[in-house]
Amino acid sequence: MMFLLRREWLLSWRRRSELINPLVFNLMVVALFPLGITPDPDELAVLAPGILWVAALLATLLSLDLMFRYDHQDGSLEQVATSGTPLAALILAKILNHWLFTGLALTLMSPLLGLMLNLPISLMPLTLLVLALGTLVFSTIGAIGAALVAGLRRSGLLLSLLVIPLYIPVLILGTGSINAALAGVSFVAPLSALAALACMALALAPWVAAAALQLSIND
Fold first, then answer.
1. Ordered DSSP codes for 121-154
2. How far apart are alpha carbons 146 and 61 in whole angstroms?
3. Can you give the pLDDT at residue 74?
4. How does the average pLDDT of the chain come out, rounded?
5. 84-103 pLDDT per residue, tens
6. Residue boundaries of the structural domains of the chain
7. d(CA 94, CA 33)
């Protein structure tokens, strides 16, 4: 497993210019919201949780198509499938690597973006936690969608249509946690549900994606 994770890390590092695009996109989306909605700090503070989550979701979509594209093009997936290495292990490595390069990076950007939207500093730890959990779910669910369209050309739009409906519960729980904290009420329930969803997705997604990827390889 560590060998697979190291392999994915090195491959991603060689193509790091492509991985910067979601981060730049995230910053641009958040920066444009005050221009398109309102520059009022109080109103922005109320809208900040939703803005941060929608921007993170859209930024994640930009990088999902890269998860299996190059391995499918150069035949690496077929070699792994015939080598005896479980595809689920490879997919788990790809999920973790995708989260490290995209999800974690988006999470670490959130305090700066939150300050731009006048989000209270006291909520930054909670924002980091819920975004870390949410982007992990984005990566796991995205791996299933990316596996389903791995053999298709120009699959970006189809991939987005597949995964966005599955992202909605994450969006609701993530924004609900921060909004509850803003309102001064308990955020334990939505946060616990989001953590449970992240654990379940991480446990099941590699196997589901492996089955989908096997169909793509056989075709």
1. GGGHHHHHHHHHHHHHHHHHHHHHHHHHTTT-SS
2. 10
3. 66
4. 85
5. 677 888 888 889 888 988 89
6. 2-218
7. 32
